Amino acid sequence: MIFVRVEKLGFSNLLKSFNSTRLLLGSAILNLSKIMARIIKFEKNDCAPCAQVSAYLDQKGIKYESINPFDQPDLAAKFKVRTVPTVIVLENDEIQHRIIGFKPEELGAIAL
Fold first, then answer.
1. 8-state DSSP, 101
2. How many angstroms separate the CA atoms of 90 and 34, rounded?
3. Is the confidence at residue 13, as pLDDT, over 90?
4. C-alpha angle with apex 49: 65 to 90, nearest 5 degrees?
5. For the whole prediction, is pTM greater than 0.85?
6. Among 2-6, 13-17, 37-41, 55-59, which is the least confidently predicted range?
7. Residue of higher predicted confidence among 12 and 4
8. Which helix (H) or strand (E) holds 15?
9. Residue 22 scores a pLDDT above 80
């Protein structure tokens, strides 16, 4: 089907069509990610409470991003992370919830 479109539209028109579709899809994904909650966990490799938080989130099937604040100090500063583990729930790029340390009752609340 693509070959037929190349013949009918010409390669440059096909490329423009592809780029427009890719831009629309990209902006839709970006907008969707801003609406959906995003969970970021700041952790260190040799931190026992960090491992407990990871195990708890994994057990509950909660998707999260792991960030080492020592490797990415700009993100740690942006979210005002002063200790690990720190779990931040973002919604519409705003902090909705912050959990410092291993607190199963609070971590369970973000699973809902």
1. S
2. 9
3. no
4. 30
5. no
6. 2-6
7. 12
8. helix 11-35
9. no
Angle at 18 (CA atoms; ends 16, 23), nearest 5 degrees: 95
| β-sheet bridge partners, residue 86 | 42, 100
Q: What angle do CA 91, 82, 70 make, to 5 degrees?
A: 95
- Reported as a pLDDT band with limits 50, 70 and 90, residue 67 is very high
* Bridge-based pairing state of the strands 65-67 and 94-100: unpaired
Q: Are 53 and 110 within 8 A, CB to CB?
A: no
Tokens representing 70?
């020592």
The mean pLDDT of 14-19, rounded to a whole number, is: 50
Side-chain half-sphere exposure of 38, counting CA atoms within 13 A: 15
Residue type, 2: I
Beta-carbon contacts of 83 under 8 Å, excluding residues fewer than 6 positions away, are 100, 101
Return the biggest CA–CA distance within the chain: 62
CA distance 100 to 80: 12
